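Dear colleague,

Following up on Tuesday's group meeting, I ran the structure prediction for the two-component complex that the binding team flagged. I've pasted the input sequences exactly as they went in, so you can double-check that nothing got truncated or mislabelled along the way. The C-alpha cells for the whole assembly follow below. Feel free to forward this to whoever is handling the docking comparison.

Inputs:
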Amino acid sequence: MNTIQKKIWMLASVVLLIMLSIWLAFTYYNQKTQNQYNDILQRYLIMNEVTSASQQVITDLNNYLLNPSLANFEQINMSQEEIRYAKHEVYNLINVENEFALTNYINLIDSFIETTNRSLKFQSEEEVEASTKEFSEATRISKYISEMTLTVIDTELKTYDRFYREIIEQSDEFKKLGIWLLLLIIVFLLLLTYWFSLTITRPVQQLTKAANELSKGRFDRPIKVESNDEISFLAKTFDQMRININNLISEIQQKAQLEHELQQNKLLLQESQLRSLQSQINPHFLFNTLNTLSKKAYLEGAEETSDLLVSVAGLLRYNLKRLDRSVTIHEEVVVLQQYMEIQKARFTDRLDFHLYIDESCLHIEIPGLTLQPIIENAVIHAIEPKEDGGSIWFRVLDEIDSVTIEIEDDGVGMSKDKVTQILEERLVEAEGHSTGIGFSNVVKRLRLFYGFEDIIQIDSTEGHGTKVVLKIPKTRRIDNNEEAPNRR
Amino acid sequence: MRKIGIIILCFIFTTLIYFTYISAEKVFYSDFQPPQTSALKEGQYRLVLITQELETPFWDKVAKGAIEQAQQEGASLEVWGSYGNNQEDFLKKIELAIHSKMDGIIVQGLDTEEFSSLTKFKAASSGIPIITVANDVPIEESLRRTYVGSDQILAGKMIAKELIADMGSLGKVIILGESEQEYHQQQRLQGIQDILKDYPNVETLYAETSDTKEQVITTTQDLLNQLPDVDAFIAVNANNAGAMIQEIGRRSRVEPFYIYTFDDGTESFSLLTQGKLDGMLEQSPEKMGELSVNLIMKWLTDETVPLNMDGYLTDIRIVKAIDM
C-alpha cells in the first residue's frame, strides 16, 4: 500500500534527485571547462617557460663568461636544469598535428644546451675566441627558440581555434540552459505538486462527500475512493460499515413487514374459524320445535319430559346465542348443569357428577361453549363405555391472577398419542357430540382467544381417567384480539 | 477549465523539455576532437625540403612529389623556405633545420659563401646529409651528398639548339644573366655558349642584371638601345623573363623576337601560353622531389652508400609555344 507518508517521501526525493542531478551536471560542466582552460593555459605556459628559460641561460652564460665565478657557474647549471625540465614538459604537448614542429622544437632546445655546454667547455679550456663564438651561436639559437615558440603557439591557436570558439559558445549556451532548466523545473514541480496534492485531497473530498451522504441517511450509495493510501483503507472500512448498516436496516424492515403480515393472517384465520364454527350450529327451527314439544309434554302431564326438553332447548339457545361472544363462567356453568341434567336423565345412577365452584370466579369471561364440550367428552369416554358408570369432577378454583378450571373423570383414559393429537389440534372429531363442537375445536378457540399455547393441559393415564385443566387468566393478555370478532 | 490548464501546462512542459535538451546538447556535446597525443616516433625520419621560392608553380610541384614520396616511405617531411628569393630567411631556415637535428635536408642549392659554410661545417659536423635539388652547387663547396635535378649544361645546350633551329644560324642574341650568378645559371650559360660559339654568324650579347624588376627593365632598355636589331632573347634566370618581355613589348611587338627561358620562373607557363615565349625548357620538378626523398631515404637506411656524387639527373625537354 502506498501510504501518504511514502508519497511525501517520494515527492521530496524526486525534488532532491533533480537538485542533485543538476548540481552534478553543473559541477561536471564546471570541472570540464576548468580542466580545458587549465590544459590550454598549461600549454602556453610551458612554451613560454622554454623561451624565458633559454633567455635565462643566455644571461647566466654571459655573466659566467665575463666573470667565471663558482656562483655564476652554479647559476648557469640551475638555469640549464630549468630548460631541461621545460623541454621535458614539452614532450607532453606532442600530438599528431604538431609532432613535427615540436620535435624540431625539442631538438632545437637540445642543440641550444649542447652549444652552451660547448661554450662552457671552451671557456674552461681558456679558448676564449671559440667560447665566444659558441656563445653567439647559442644566442642565435635562443632567438630561434623564441621565434619557434611563437610559431608553435600560432599553430596551437590554429589547431585549437575551433575548440576555443566552441568553449565560448558553450559558456554562452550554458546561461541559456540555466534559464531553460529553471523554467522546466518550475513547470515540472508545479505539475508534480498538483498531482501530488490531488492524490491526497481528492480521496479526502470523496470521503467527505460520502460521509455527507451517510449523514443524510442515504445508505445505498457505495463509497468509491480512487486511491491506494490510508484514505482508501478508511473508505473501504467506511463502506463496509455502510453496507452493514444498510443490511441491518433492511433486515429490521423485513422483520416488521413479516410480523405485520403474520398478524394479519392470524386475525383472518380466527375470523374465518369462528365463522365456520358458527355455521355448524343447529338452526332456530330445532329450538322452536323443542319448546313446542316441551309445552306439549307438560300439557300431557309428563313433567319430567317437559323439563328435559326445556334443558335441551336452553342448551340449544345457548349454542345459538353465545358462541359469537365471550360469556362469564357463571353462564357457562348454568349451561353445563342443564347438560348434566340431560345426561343424568340418560345415565341415572351410573353418572356421578361432583361440582365445586369458587363463587368469586364466576364473573370471569371465557369463550362461549368451551366447558360443555369437554364435559361431554368426559361423559362419552368415561361414563358411556363403563357399565357401572363413573364419576366426573368439575372444579373452578381461584388462583391469584388466574382461574383454574379442572374437569376430571375416572374413565378409561387416553393414550399419550391421543393427548398430543388433541393438543396439536389434529384430532379427527368423533361423531356424537351434541353441539357439534369437539375437543380440538375448544382447544383451538381457547388458544386463539387468549393468544398463548398452554392455556390447556391434559393429564391422562390409560385405565385411570383423565384430567383436563384450563388456566384462565383474570385479565385478557392481547386486548386487540377481542376487537376481531366485534369488527363485523 | 482545470483540464485545459493542465493540458497547457503539459504542453509547456514538453516544449521546455525539448528546448532544454537542445541547449544541454549544445553545452555538453562537443564535436571537437583534440589532436591525438602521440609520443615521439623514434623510428620515423624527419626530412625537410627548403627552397627560396615557396609557392611558385615549379617548387609546388617539387614539394608535391617530395611529400608523396615521403608518405610512401613512411617519413615525415615538411616544406620550409623563403618567399621571393629572400636569402637571409632561406639561410636561417637551413640553420634552423640543422639545429633542429633533421635527419635529412633537401635544399635548393644556393651558390653563396654563407650557404657553403652552413652546409660544409654545421650540417656536416652534425652528420646531417644534404641533397641539393633543382639547383646544384659545386660539391667541394657544400659537401652535399648528391644532386637531384636537371643537367643544367644540357639544358643550356638544348635552349641554344632550339634557338638556332628557330632563328637559323644568323642573328643577334641577347643573353640576360644574373649579376649574382648562381651555379646552375653558370652551367646554363655555359651550355648556351658552348653551342652558340659554333655559329660565328650568331652575335651574342651577354648582360647581367640583378633580379629586381626595375633593374631588369632598365637593363633590358639598355640592351635594346645597344642592340636595336636584336633577333632573340634568352633569360637565364626564368624569373626575369616576365619583366624583360614586358619591356620589349613597350618598344615593339613581341612576336617577331625569339624569346627563350626556363620553367622555374613564376610566370614561365603563363608567358608560354600567351605566346610571348617561343620556347621554354621544361624540367621534371615532381620527379625531382620524388627522387630526392627516395635517395635521402636510401642513404639514411644505408641502402645505397655512397650516393652518386655527380648527381641524379631528371628529364628535360623543350616546350614550344606552338605546342600549347
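The CA atoms of residues 159 and 281 of chain B lie 7 Å apart.

Cheers,
M.
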